[in-house]
Amino acid sequence: MISVVPAYWDADDMGNIAVSSLTKLGLSVSEALLIGRDLSPMSCLEGEQFLVRGDRLDYWVFVISGCLVGTVALDDGTQFPVAVYSEDNWFGEDLLLAKEPSSMTLTAVSDTYILLLPRKAFISALDTSRHFARILTKLLGTKSTGAFSQLVAMRYSSLPLKAFTLLALLVEAQVKRTGWKRSGRFPDEVIIRASQDLLGRLCGVSRTVFSSYLRVLRSRELVSVNYGILRVHKVVVFLSFLQEQRTRAYLPAKTSIEALVEALVESDVAWASVSNSFHPSTVPPEL
Q: Can you tell me the distance from the alpha carbon of 3 to that of 44, in angstroms, rounded to the nearest whole number?
């Protein structure tokens, strides 16, 4: 299923990244060093599929840089974006513990570098470290309460909703990296470095259609595009959209991109006053 492609990193740098990421989760340095020695690097090029729906994941995965988008198949054969794994994200523990195949396909939206912990080493760490077991319990609990409902995804299957959902998930992933909780405010903008062609394919639309959606968002000053770089403004609008989805708030299943944006901007006026109470889920949805 997964072909481990050696990335040309310095071994010491890779070890430092691994130990740092594991200690941030709550492991001691000695525990992190034991796990870190079993990690191996892999690189995924932009547009490459890391995991295909129905495959089994044999690793616990940490994203060093780049971004993976998870999509689920709808009844009409198209894909719906439901998860984003970006820098400093671990994922796959649920599949390893359940021994179940993935319900998602994971695609790199930019050149992505990851570290892989084999199943055997994962289970060994779980058996020998109470701290590791406690951390996994917390991750799984957070994932359960913050998951983006796949039933919601199946219901809201219009093309504009797919596109807006993908952008909102990418925005949320970027916001998590900004340290906004320490500052008490969201960033003024986030940058999404991915081709419109690939983003369109992940939503099941052509580059032309995806670009037409961006033009509507630009007209409301929600985004801007310069030299292929997508800048997202009014970040709170995208985050409130995900909040509404996750709390099962009503959004029409069949709507134009213009009507969707209008509804979201209007609802954001009231929502923005309590935006500081919003907490993006610390772990993306389960595979």
A: 10
- Return the bridge partners of 70, or none: 83, 106
Torsion region of 221: left, alpha or beta (phi above 0 gives left; psi -120 to 50 gives alpha) = left
Domains, the chain, in order of start with CATH, read 11-146 (2.60.120.10), 151-277 (1.10.10.10)
User: In which order are the strands placed within the sheet that holds 90-91?
Assistant: 40-44, 112-118, 59-65, 90-91
pLDDT at residue 183 greater than cutoff 70: no
The confidence score (pLDDT) of residue 11 equals: 52
Q: H helices then E strands: how many in the chain?
A: 12, 11
Of 83, 239, 74, give the one whose Cα is nearest residue 157: 74
Angle between helices 257-271 and 159-176 (to 10 degrees): 40
pLDDT, tens digit (0-9, with 9 covering 90-100), for 227-250: 778 999 888 888 888 877 766 655
Amino acid at residue number 100: E
Distance (Å, rounded) from C-alpha 4 to C-alpha 106? 16
Residue with tokens 């396909």: 105
pTM for the model: 0.78
Q: Is the pLDDT of residue 70 over 60?
A: yes
